[in-house]
């Protein structure tokens, strides 16, 4: 009993979030580098001969230099077992990020030092605050021209509504970036790295205090004088640090550094692990589930098809919420109402996998999905049954009519569309009394259509026709037994149905929604009724 509790206590499971191009995936790579999980960090965008980022494993990610799917990576560091969830930064994939945050116990928010808080940062921050999880801020790209650190911390407080506490303070920026001042240790960390290394390897760091006479030569009189003034101001007028507020999501510790050159990455990792929490309890229909509960439980937060191109398999990603998992153990799939044995649990490093025998609360594992799992499903021990709360999807805002160019590829088309939809990347609808040979696809972002087309062509060998539709709003019809053909609607409003047979309406504008409600007495429409997984 003591051993399994000790294993749970050393787990740390967190997501990394940011606006596109803030350096989120680069920071992930450097954390893996310091954790010994990789020997050389890859580049998200770079020359043809450079290694790609480990977490960007899809071909389309390597080609475009963007993350389009969440990646899971586990590694050991200083006796901690760390599970990193690297999320897509692009707004079009915010739904995948939202689901991934449901599996995290804390979040690292990466901010571009030149741009500050950006649109996608605000959106993802709101998701974190809904769950009150701790949020740690890494202000990145200090090796480039940056805004004033005071302006950056003020903007976080004003726009995101969370207090900040600077754990370290930058010494210069851009070409003048010399390192950081560690406020707790009262030490200056200066960094030297080979310019030709491109941050691929760990960097050496040296520490000295403010009284060191060598500092004037190392930093220059101007930077040293500015630093002393900044430290005096921070210590005298800055907010007090409260670990309790951090863990309640009320205070965000702020770190400055450069993920690309590795400046400040390892000190950040060490402090982050010291402050962040062990696995958190999860809400279920019988109350909160304590991670130390000896009964195994987990929920599915992601499904990914074709991670192994040779086998064309599907992997369900589980967040273990309580107890210990043993390979081959029998669990109950609550939504399917059936017992099943999980014979080949996998530890993941992006698309690379390793069969494991044990896992614990806080861990993320992959299991083979024979087509029975859906996002939000609960798996638990047979002697303590319950269901975790479901994970809602975002209502799609873009729609397109999709069909295979070659009717002989119907079987591959249906399989590909169904599997990709089950991953949650898209939503599939049909015309009334229609077939799967032509479907209406709903997506949160336009880029998801490009990824859909790419994956159908490369993974399922199906070329498709795609016709964008002008509709932007979707509503589920809540009235039971209502014949949608009897409704009085504008000519550009379309009635469709989801794969469960629920009837929906898609509209070009909000005016069309109002018109439908005014001209159909008693009509009940829901924005989310059918959008729950």
UniProtKB/TrEMBL annotation:
Pfam families: EF-G_D2, GTP_EFTU, RF3_C. Its main location: cytoplasm. Residues 9-280 form the Tr-type G domain. Keywords: Cytoplasm, GTP-binding, Nucleotide-binding, Protein biosynthesis. It is found in: Cytoplasm. CDD domains: RF3. GTP binds at residues 18-25, 86-90, 140-143. Increases the formation of ribosomal termination complexes and stimulates activities of RF-1 and RF-2. It binds guanine nucleotides and has strong preference for UGA stop codons. It may interact directly with the ribosome. The stimulation of RF-1 and RF-2 is significantly reduced by GTP and GDP, but not by GMP. Belongs to the TRAFAC class translation factor GTPase superfamily. Classic translation factor GTPase family. PrfC subfamily. HAMAP family: Rel_fac_3. This is Peptide chain release factor 3. The lineage of its organism: Bacteria, Bacillati, Bacillota, Clostridia, Eubacteriales. The gene is prfC.
